[in-house]
Amino acid sequence: MPKRFYIILLLVSLGFTGLGQALTVFSTRNGKAYFLSDAPLELISATSRNLIGVLNTQDRRFSFSILVSTFEGFNSSLQQTHFNEDYLETDLYPQATFKGKIIEEVDLGVPGQYRIRAKGKLNIHGLDNDRIIRCDVSVEPGRIKVKAEFTVFLDTHDIKIPSIVNQKIAEEIHVQIEFDMQAAN
Prior knowledge:
With 185 residues, the protein is mainly beta. It contains two helices and eight strands.
């Protein structure tokens, strides 16, 4: 599906319906997500530049999504196939999402550097997990840059790894995200 569809879907899911209200909405369509599995027998990493999302700076609500199958850079094409078909099952669970609200009462309309906590539901492999993720935010006129690092535990999202390869895939996956949002209104 086109990225425009996902942006519209994200806007609707956040309930941007305040007629007459001056909302400040920021969006991205090419954010970067990177993950690393550092297991005893193998190091696996991949990157996607297809993170999309919206942020309403007035009520501090956000919604982000990524098509899991867009990750690239695996050690081999077979590894990528196993990731998509056997572990993340992207045919059944094509997206990973994070929706919620910024905890701090920060005015993201004021330029500056902020460390905030994003509280919401992280959905991977079809399972929601309540999370609080620390983010470093840089605000410039008409632009918001965000960087965050966090860990995803495979068992929390019911991602099964066969015992024959459990020394090649870490149970804790290190994730980094980075995106640059532009004013959408």
